[in-house]
């Protein structure tokens, strides 16, 4: 079914993928900044979701000196049908990783750092303590640094969430990713209820910390289902929502059911704004970290700064 509400649209077989529309095609950015980011990432032996998930925006971000760090290694314990990150049995927890992230952020002169992770269902706290240690390591280098975290659902663990909140992230993000009906097919180890509970509890426990969530569109959802998710997010007092086009990372992954037009994304932006979100970023190329620093500045009132 199509994301913009054309209820008869079906998912094409994997061997007949949809043609990518022109609004998703852009020149590939080049330049010394791209290579600089890659050198620092290699030198500090850290991971980025930009590379591990093959984000289509990564070179554009690199060209402006931005990236999203991925902690807890590069092997995920879950196997979501849309994600390119490797799945399997992760290695033991790397306790030096937070310091290397902080070193890389300093090398790149970042004043706003976005941190996500693989899911680590093998760890008792789901990796929450590593998020907290990474925030602490960054602020030991510079107490003014802002850190946005994109966390897993921690399988609904409130103590794990509290561990992250105690480190006072600038923004706490957890992506719903898709509509509840598609969870069994796309996120078999996730639960929609865990996502909503995490966002609601985060806002209840630390109302001063903006919360954020995101959805990928074009996976087979209907317009009314997307609107219902936005309504659920507002009930959880989520502040910011991002909506972007799902782009299939390989033929082994879930096919694209539909490429939404820019006008359809604009419609969802208008719907979200009318619901009262503090900020709605909706567009074909929008991703979780889209304009993260600028959006945080709008929501928190703290202007971006240079290191």
Outline of this structure?
With 307 residues, the protein is α/β, with parallel strands linked by helices. It has helices spanning 32-44, 49-52, 58-63, 97-108, 128-141, 158-166, 183-186, 192-205, 223-235, 262-275, 292-300; strands at 47-48, 68-71, 75-76, 86-87, 112-117, 146-150, 171-173, 211-217, 240-245, 279-282.
Can you tag this structure with a few keywords?
10 strands; two-stranded parallel sheet; TIM Barrel; 13% strand; eight-stranded mixed β-sheet; alpha/beta; 36% helix; 307 residues; single chain; globular; 11 helices
How would you describe this protein?
This protein is an alpha/beta fold. The chain has a single domain (26-300), classed as TIM Barrel. It is 36% helix and 13% strand. The chain is built from 11 helices and 10 strands. Strands 1-2-5-6-7-8-9-10 form an 8-stranded mixed sheet, sandwiched between helices. β6, α6 (158-166) and β7 (171-173) form a beta-alpha-beta unit. α1 (32-44) runs antiparallel to α4, α4 (97-108) crosses α5 (128-141) and α6 crosses α8. It is globular, with a radius of gyration of 18 Å. It starts with 31 loop residues before the first helix and ends in a 7-residue tail after the last helix. Residues 1-14 have low confidence and may be disordered.
């Amino acid at each position: 079914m199509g994301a913009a509400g054309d209820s008869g649209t079906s998912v094409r077989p994997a061997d007949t993928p949809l043609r990518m529309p022109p609004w998703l095609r852009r020149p590939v950015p080049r330049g010394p900044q791209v290579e600089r980011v890659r050198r620092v990432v290699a030198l500090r032996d850290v991971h980025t979701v930009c590379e591990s998930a093959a984000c289509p925006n990564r070179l554009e971000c690199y060209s402006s000196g931005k990236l999203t760090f991925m902690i807890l290694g590069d092997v995920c314990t879950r196997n979501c049908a849309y994600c390119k990150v490797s799945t399997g049995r992760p290695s033991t927890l790397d306790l030096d990783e937070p310091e290397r992230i902080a070193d890389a952020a300093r090398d790149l002169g970042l004043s706003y750092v976005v941190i996500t992770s693989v899911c680590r269902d093998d760890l008792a706290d789901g990796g929450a303590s590593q998020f907290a240690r990474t925030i602490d390591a960054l602020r030991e280098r510079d107490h003014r640094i802002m850190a946005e975290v994109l966390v897993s659902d921690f399988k609904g663990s409130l103590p794990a969430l509290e561990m992250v909140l105690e480190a006072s992230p600038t923004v706490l993000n957890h992506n719903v990713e898709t509509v509840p009906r598609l969870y069994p097919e796309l996120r078999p180890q996730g639960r929609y209820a865990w996502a909503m509970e995490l966002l609601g509890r985060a806002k209840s426990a630390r109302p001063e910390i903006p919360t954020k969530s995101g959805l990928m569109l074009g996976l087979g959802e209907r317009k009314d289902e997307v609107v219902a998710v936005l309504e659920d997010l507002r009930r959880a007092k989520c502040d910011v929502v991002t909506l972007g086009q799902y782009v299939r990372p390989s033929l082994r992954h879930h096919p694209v059911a539909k490429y939404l037009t820019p006008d359809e994304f604009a419609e969802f932006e208008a719907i979200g704004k009318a619901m009262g979100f503090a900020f709605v970023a909706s567009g074909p190329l929008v991703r979780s970290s889209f304009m993260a620093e600028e959006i945080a500045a709008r929501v928190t009132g703290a202007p971006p700064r240079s290191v």
